[in-house]
Amino acid sequence: EAAHLYLEKLDRPADAADALLLAASRAPDDLGLLVELARCLSRAGREAEARERVGAAIARGTGTRADRVSLLRLRAELSSEPDQLGDAIFDLEAAYALDATVAPDLAEYLERRKATPAGSGDRALWLRLFDLWLTMARYDGARDLLGEWLSQEPGDIGFLRKAAFMDALAGRWDQVVELCDRIVGLEEGQARVGAALLVAAACSQAGYP
């Protein structure tokens, strides 16, 4: 009650956090109280302390599978600064492994990381987001992501092949021909022969003479 008074009536999150800390010390396994405490600490500018307390609960293995997912999501939410996004993604990946409904949150943080200088050239991160969007049936977004990467790395054969495959599934054969032709120019040896055969097949599907 004291915490509610400090937070909601008097707008004093630091005092509310202190009141909740006292309550949490008496009920360390009360996850509802922990969540309220963490959010209050964050509001008071004590995000590091909030993350530490949530992390301690995660390490104890407190609660059910659903509780663990909630705690992982909460710690990710408390790690929203650009230099913390890697930690947030780590937590959300762990939560996603337990509950697939976490996918939208994971995708959001991957996108945010992708927009940072550190993430803009992180091929593995882009591939993870691509795979996640496929899982979420966001096919247009996945294809756009490939195009965005290829605009900065036009010689990435792996991404070119993925783009050609997606365009083939969508029946965009003119684009498939163009992409496979680019692959031919980049491959060598037997792989180049295989790419040339793909060009021929794509041309046939496109109706080229």
Describe the overall structure.
It is a single chain. The chain is mainly alpha-helical and 209 residues long. Helix content is 78%, strand content 0%. It is built from 13 helices and no strands. The protein has helices at residues 2-9, 13-26, 31-43, 47-60, 65-77, 85-98, 103-114, 117-120, 123-135, 139-152, 157-169, 173-186, 189-206. Helix 5 (65-77) packs antiparallel against helix 6, helix 6 packs antiparallel against helix 7 (103-114) and helix 11 (157-169) packs antiparallel against helix 12 (173-186).
Briefly say what this structure is.
This protein is mostly helical and 209 residues long. 78% of the residues lie in helices and 0% in strands.
Essential attributes:
mainly alpha; 209 residues; disordered N terminus
Mean pLDDT: 89
* Estimated radius of gyration: 24 Å
Query: Uncertain segments of ≥5 residues (pLDDT<50)?
Result: 1-10
Structural class: mainly alpha
